[in-house]
Design a protein that fits this description.
Blueprint lengths: L1 E6 L2 H11 L6 E6 L9 E2 L7 H11 L3 E4 L2 H5 L2 H7 L4 E2 L7 H4 L1 H11 L6 E4 L2 H10 L6 E5 L8 E4 L2 H12 L11 E5 L4 E9 L4 E3 L4 E2 L2 E3 L3 E4 L4 E4 L6 H21 L6 E10 L2 E8 L6 H5 L8 H9 L5 E2 L6 E8 L25 E5 L2 E4 L2 E4 L3 E9 L2 H12 L15 H4 L1
Parallel strand pairs: 1-2, 1-4, 2-3, 4-5, 11-18
Antiparallel strand pairs: 6-9, 7-8, 7-9, 10-11, 10-16, 12-15, 13-14, 15-19, 16-17, 19-23, 20-23, 21-22
Length: 424
């Protein structure tokens, strides 16, 4: 089977890496990919946000299955266009992907289906949002979210009214996140610990992947601004077998039923960002794809082929249950450009990637990299994810950080506490 992976980050590299080692894959192609992915897989130029470009590539390359990694192409209707042209794709349609692209829609869906989540209100006018904050409807801290897609950065946990008003102003007036901030969702602050729960679904049945926990803040101890993710570990100790059953019963299955009832059947990866509270799991957000950096630690944990399940999910006939997983634990550390998620410089030479010791028990997934004269240089905020496994989280952490220590570039930044809360 010829498979196209759409996207160009570390998540897509992890998908290529996983599928490339499986029996059913004759070739894995990535579009647009990046210079690091191109070391191992053929990368083809394409504008992933233009469905017509990808459809033309699929037909030219005679692709059997397209797997869509990031949310942007899903929101642009790539799966709709591929389906209309008679090509199989694993991922939700544009309407189904609104479970991520519109937090207001997701809140309405959860309310209608009885899915547990934080109390909230959606505001489309600045005066309404400021009124909610002034009335202290949800108390403080309070959470302010841009309604649309904001690359994982459009969320502020405001400790007081002044910081909440600043967040609203940045979203709705300054348009820090563009049109994503034309509406905001203000919701109560949930207390507990976050976990990421993933399923692959055909819209009716679901197959459960390993859970994970990510580290969103830029600095150790969960300090600093939100990022797209500075690292992750799998599986989450919070998601026991009993907890997984509860999440399926109270969150995943009602959400899938609700989407079907609205004429938006959902196929592909569904990411449930959860807060595990004293009252049980509650949804913080839904994402219409695998997480990044969670995918980089979840996919190595699978102990069976992924490709046949992707094919079946896209075709509406997935086998329900749970993926077979390895006994090891996995830790992934993101190496980022200095200044990320704010302003940062690019074009910095990356040293150590060809160190033979780096290949011993660790895997490097490439994100923000480019080729300069046959060598890799930085080209984004999150540059690499270094992943390692071990019998426990302590061993996995030691191996991941040992591997990461062999890589360097000017201004390189990483958190030093990834996975520590799993040990603690």
């Amino acid at each position: 089977m010829r498979v196209l992976v759409v996207g160009g980050g570390a998540r897509e590299h992890a998908l290529c890496w996983k599928l490339g080692g499986e029996r059913g894959a004759s070739e894995i192609v990535c579009a647009p990919g990046n210079a690091g992915i191109a070391r191992d897989f053929r990368c083809l130029p394409a504008d992933a946000g233009r469905p017509a470009d990808v459809v033309a590539l699929v037909e030219r390359e005679r692709i059997d299955l397209t797997v869509v990694g990031p949310e942007g192409p899903l929101t642009a209707g790539l799966v709709d266009s591929l389906g209309a042209a008679g090509h199989r794709a694993c991922g939700p349609t544009r309407l189904a992907a609104e479970i991520e692209s519109s937090k207001a829609f997701a809140k309405r869906l959860m309310a209608a289906c009885g899915v547990p989540t934080a109390r909230s209100v959606t505001c489309t006018a600045l005066s309404d949002a400021l009124g909610v904050l002034r009335d202290e409807r949800f108390g403080y801290p309070v959470v302010v979210k841009a309604d649309g897609l904001a690359a994982g950065k459009g969320v502020t946990v405001a400790l007081d009214r002044a910081s909440a008003e600043t967040a609203v102003g940045e979203m709705m007036v300054d348009r820090r996140f563009g049109d994503a901030g034309s509406a905001v969702v203000i919701e109560e602050y949930l207390r507990g610990r976050e976990a990421s729960f993933f399923v692959l679904t055909d819209g009716v049945r679901a197959r459960v992947l390993p859970s994970a926990e990510d580290h969103k803040r830029a600095f150790d101890g969960d300090g600093g601004p939100n990022t797209g993710g500075m690292g992750a570990f799998a599986a989450s100790p919070l998601v026991t077998e009993a907890m997984a059953d509860r999440i399926l019963d109270s969150i995943v299955e009602p959400a899938l039923r609700g989407l079907r009832g609205e004429g938006r059947p959902y196929r592909g990866f569904l990411y449930c960002g959860l807060m595990i509270t004293d009252d049980g799991p509650k949804v913080v957000e839904f994402n219409a794809r695998l997480g990044d950096p969670e995918a980089q630690v979840v996919l190595p944990a699978l102990d069976e082929d992924l490709l046949p399940h992707l094919w079946n999910a896209a075709g509406g006939a997935i086998e329900p249950g749970a993926f077979r997983v390895r006994p090891d634990r996995y830790v992934g550390v993101v190496l980022a450009s200095g200044g990320y998620p704010g302003a940062f410089e690019t074009g910095k030479a990356i040293a150590g990637l060809d160190d033979p010791a780096l290949r011993d028990g660790a895997q490097v997934f490439y994100a923000g990299v480019a080729d300069r004269g046959g060598a890799l240089v930085t080209a984004g905020g999150r540059v690499l994810t270094v992943v390692a496994g071990g019998a426990g989280f302590a061993e996995a952490r030691e191996a991941a950080y040992a591997a990461a220590s062999r890589i360097s570039f000017e201004g390189m930044h990483c958190r030093r506490d990834i996975g520590m809360r799993a040990i603690g």
